[in-house]
């Protein structure tokens, strides 16, 4: 009997231990103490009536803290940050832990809801006020103040300023990108043209292919449905998409198809710009011309051509590191335009950055009416061009990549004549021909050049006998290459700036910009002769003449077996191509 009693007691004890263990495991899993932690953090009660009022930064605190992130609050109580100047958006301050239920009859006037407010006193809000929209100057000052406080790098500061400036010019850019014209400039269907308006929804997207397309190319290397172009209303630009073509699509010699070339899937949309060259297969090239709805056009003929000169040296394929561009007019500045070539080394990143920044810097500086009027009055933009290169160099964040850069600034005078002035670093050159007179617009900045040898001598560190490179580079001046410039003080980004050239209304003139792949095999004198001959041969071709001249020059460089990427920008100022560029005062 005693044995049975003792056994039952042991059984009950084990049962209690098991129950306690189960209860302990349940407590661990449920974590009930988390419901009490919110009681220790400060909370704030807002009435339903207050939720309808805007929550804003106090003006004084906004200036002290340099914070311009606006916050909106809807009737459901869910807070969201507006995307402002600073990226990525800051996430400290007011946050919600749980979305409030939607407004309903159960929430009456005078009832309260509780929002958890993190104990971060960086931002203070007052109820019943509205945000004050800062002026451009104030907002730039705020961005600069915040950048100094956070000790951000120069590249981020530049991005912030560029984002801010772009916020004020999208309408101008959008107005320039409404009419798209395509012209086949090489291949079996050469001469074929097609155009479409961004407002013609029934004609979009515009398809390019060998059959059943809006632009039909009789080329065996072109797929039936090769590519398409569509208008992106959100971004206000035209976009090109490869439709899984067999032989691929290139934009300015860069492939844009799906990364998996064998998948036959559509590629990602790529923005189209005025002057771009679309290559379908290997022989069909299509020139892109973008104008505004009002018909604003470049007041002279412009042609662009480029080729990576890829297949040579036993079939080795070279990467395309040249980037050529032009903008006429510059955003918000109808009398000025920028034309340029950036020739990269060590990769294309520096060339892409410079080709984007240079025209933006020109537009930003010339947006000052006093600066613009001084250039127009004195017929000289030397100071502007020097500042443009200085600011671009400061804002570039390319430590192991660099580029030669040549920028030709063109502006219209009141009597429909033009002025052209060039600045450059590196070996991408520009030459002009005005009424038969050849004018050199750039300076060669290779290490072995005469001008650079003189500069080295002036620094007290001349080149050694037979030395033609510094740290492996044959250029002494370039944009980017920040690491090398830290190691070798003789590297420079100071540009050469030419005299301004006056192209009179009755003048016969043209400008030729080309990367070093062209000048390695063709002299300036021969290039001018070839351009004059090509102009005479294709003088009746109208707007397409400059494009043909550029392609003839490119073909000549290819025939002479150039061994580098080659890009050409050709401007024809002949009177017959001119469009009135007068601007109402």
UniProtKB/TrEMBL annotation:
UniProt domain FHA: residue ranges: 206-256
SUPFAM superfamilies membership: PP2C-like, SMAD/FHA domain
UniProt xrefs under PROSITE patterns: FHA_DOMAIN, PPM_2
Taxonomy, superkingdom: Eukaryota
InterPro entries (UniProt xref): FHA_dom, PP2C, PPM-type-like_dom_sf, PPM-type_phosphatase-like_dom, SMAD_FHA_dom_sf
Positions of the PPM-type phosphatase domain: 301-573
Protein name (database record): Protein-serine/threonine phosphatase
Naturally occurring in which organism (per UniProt): Salix suchowensis
Upper classification of the organism: Eukaryota, Viridiplantae, Streptophyta, Embryophyta, Tracheophyta
């Amino acid at each position: 009997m005693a044995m049975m009693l003792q056994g039952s007691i042991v059984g009950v004890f084990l049962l209690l231990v098991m129950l306690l263990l189960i209860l302990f495991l349940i407590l661990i899993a449920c974590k009930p103490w988390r419901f009490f932690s919110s009681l220790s953090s400060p909370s704030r009660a807002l009435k339903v009536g207050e939720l309808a009022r805007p929550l804003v930064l106090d003006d004084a605190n906004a200036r002290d803290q340099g914070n311009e992130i606006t916050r909106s609050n809807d009737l459901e109580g869910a807070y969201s940050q507006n995307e402002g100047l600073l990226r990525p958006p800051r996430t400290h301050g007011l946050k919600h832990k749980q979305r409030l239920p939607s407004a309903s009859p159960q929430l009456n006037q005078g009832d309260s809801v509780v929002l958890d407010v993190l104990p971060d006193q960086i931002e203070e809000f007052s109820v019943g006020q509205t945000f004050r929209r800062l002026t451009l100057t104030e907002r730039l000052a705020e961005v600069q103040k915040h950048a100094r406080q956070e000790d951000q790098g120069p590249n981020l500061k530049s991005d912030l300023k560029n984002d801010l400036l772009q916020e004020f010019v999208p309408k101008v850019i959008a107005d320039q990108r409404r009419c798209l014209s395509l012209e086949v400039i090489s291949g079996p269907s050469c001469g074929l043209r097609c155009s479409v308006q961004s407002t013609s929804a029934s004609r979009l997207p515009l398809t390019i292919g060998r059959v059943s397309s809006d632009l039909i190319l009789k080329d065996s290397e072109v797929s039936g449905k090769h590519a398409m172009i569509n208008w992106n209303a959100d971004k206000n630009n035209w976009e090109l998409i490869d439709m899984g073509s067999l032989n691929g699509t290139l934009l300015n010699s860069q492939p844009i198809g799906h990364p998996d070339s064998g998948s036959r899937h559509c590629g990602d949309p790529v923005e189209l710009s005025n002057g771009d060259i679309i290559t379908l297969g290997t022989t069909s090239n299509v020139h892109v011309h973008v104008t505004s709805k009002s018909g604003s056009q470049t007041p002279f003929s412009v042609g662009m051509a480029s080729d990576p000169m890829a297949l040579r040296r036993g079939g080795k394929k070279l990467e395309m590191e040249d980037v050529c561009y032009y903008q006429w007019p510059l955003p918000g500045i109808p009398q000025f335009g920028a034309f340029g070539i950036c020739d990269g080394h060590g990769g294309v990143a520096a060339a892409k950055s410079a080709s984007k920044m240079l025209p933006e810097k020109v537009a930003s500086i010339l947006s000052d009416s006093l600066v613009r009027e001084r250039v127009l009055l004195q017929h000289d933009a030397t100071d502007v061009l020097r500042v443009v290169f200085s600011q671009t160099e400061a804002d570039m964040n390319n430590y192991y990549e660099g580029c030669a850069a040549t920028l030709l600034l063109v502006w219209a005078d009141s009597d429909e004549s033009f002025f052209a002035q060039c600045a450059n670093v590196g070996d991408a050159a520009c030459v002009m021909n005005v009424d038969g007179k050849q004018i050199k617009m750039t300076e060669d900045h290779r290490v072995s050049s005469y001008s650079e040898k003189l500069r080295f001598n002036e620094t007290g560190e001349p080149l050694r006998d037979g030395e033609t490179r510094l740290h492996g580079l044959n250029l002494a001046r370039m944009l980017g290459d920040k690491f090398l410039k830290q190691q070798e003080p003789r590297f420079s980004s100071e540009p050469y700036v030419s005299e301004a050239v006056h192209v009179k209304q009755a003048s016969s003139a043209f400008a030729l910009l080309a990367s070093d792949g062209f000048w390695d095999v063709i002299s300036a004198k021969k290039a001018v002769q070839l351009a004059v001959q090509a102009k005479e041969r294709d003088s009746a071709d109208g707007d397409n003449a400059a494009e043909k001249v550029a392609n003839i020059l490119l073909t000549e460089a290819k025939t002479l077996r150039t061994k580098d990427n080659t890009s050409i920008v050709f401007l024809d100022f002949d009177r017959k191509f001119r469009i009135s560029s007068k601007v109402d005062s």
